[in-house]
Structure prediction request, 301 residues.
Amino acid sequence: MFVGDLCDRGPDSPAVVKLVSELRSAGVAQCVLGNHEINVLRGAQKHGNAWITKPEHEENTHEYACAVATPPQRATFAAFFRTLPLALERADLRVVHAAWDADAIATLRTLDDDCATTFTRFEEQTIADLARLLSLKQAALAPHRHGLRDETYAMPSLPDVGAYEQGKQTLNPVRRITSGLERTTTTPFFATGEWRFCDRVRWWNEYTDDTAVVFGHYWRVASAAIKGKVDLMAEYGIGDWQGPKRNLCWVDFSVGARFRERRDRVRTGTPADAPFEGRLAAVRWPERALVFADGEVVEPS
Prediction:
């Protein structure tokens, strides 16, 4: 079972997508959609996905030094992504890319459209619903725009900005389960180069259903070498299951950071065969053990 985000951070996204597609066709694997696959289906140019959306982009030869998709692969991969479910569930287990949101899941269960069509339809409605809030956001932010990217600026609370950002992230049910939940904050905070008025919801600490959930999306910071990421799991150990009932497993251990590690090794002279800090992990069910690509097995604690 793959939890999505198959692409955009490694040296050979086409090979990864091809492998997962073949495994699924053979009936030995399943996969849910992540936000990166949805971006590809939408033709949205995002950081890291030029390998398929814009093969001639310099990102492919510089930052990622990656293989690019051939024209036939671009069509084949898009067709494959369209067949993937947004979530999977059975009596004892649920699998989703970013967040198990009951309302969003209930809405999406009733729809028959493919994921790209569904996303676009809800996104168009979201834009219409946010039109009034956009003007309020712009008016509230106007006096402070010069300080938006200045960490030393005394940024006040701007509820209208927060309300707009929360709506942008949460009104579309597809976005909620593939990109996560956000909530307006009472105090703005500075992150990734600018002031923020919405924060990620640690939904796993609010999940009270009995059914277990496996998810990815957010990078678990298992090492100080994973730079630039807030440790959303600081209160949990590596083998801990999360949530009030300890029945959620977050399996993304920052394997997407390997492109940075490869780049930094060239700069620092670190041996090419040194262990990576970003790790590839899976959960063994029903044993609930974490299994890493290097062979390490961490039993649930």
Summary: The two ends are 23 Å apart (CA to CA). Residues 115-129 form the longest helix (15 residues).
